[in-house]
Amino acid sequence: MTARLGLLAAAVTVITGALSTTADASPAAATLQYGSHGWGVKCVQEAVNDWAWRTGGDWPLSVDGSFGSRTRSWVKKFQSASGVSADGVVGKATGNSVLDNLQGDSTYRHDCYDYVPSTHS
């Protein structure tokens, strides 16, 4: 009986997790800024591209995981449009906007929660 309850609890966890529209953010995700590399930077680049496209532009950034001067410049534009301090650094406030912007993007959305700083839970 205990084994069946354990399996049932695991199944419910998997099913409800699959239906959830958000995931838990990693409180340990590092701030992303000029010189950063990796998956978190790709998430930021994808979010900025999605935002730029939805506001009538093209995709201005290569999604290469390298936070260079072009990414910093576009992050500042994204921050201004999102109502957060436009300093070109992706901390928790900007990270919240990045993750919110990726809500409809199934390619990056779930993987980004572990790599983008935020207060989402």
Describe the model.
The protein has 5 helices and no strands. 30% of the residues are buried. The chain is mainly alpha-helical and 121 residues long. It is globular. It has one domain: Muramoyl-pentapeptide Carboxypeptidase, domain 1 (Orthogonal Bundle).
Which labels suit this protein?
single chain, 121 residues, mainly alpha, Muramoyl-pentapeptide Carboxypeptidase, domain 1, 5 helices, 0% strand, globular
Number of strands: 0
Level-1 CATH class name: Mainly Alpha
Structural class: mainly alpha
Count of helical stretches: 5
Secondary structure elements and pairings:
Layout: H1 2-19, H2 39-54, H3 69-82, H4 92-101, H5 109-112
Write a brief caption for the model.
This protein is mostly helical.
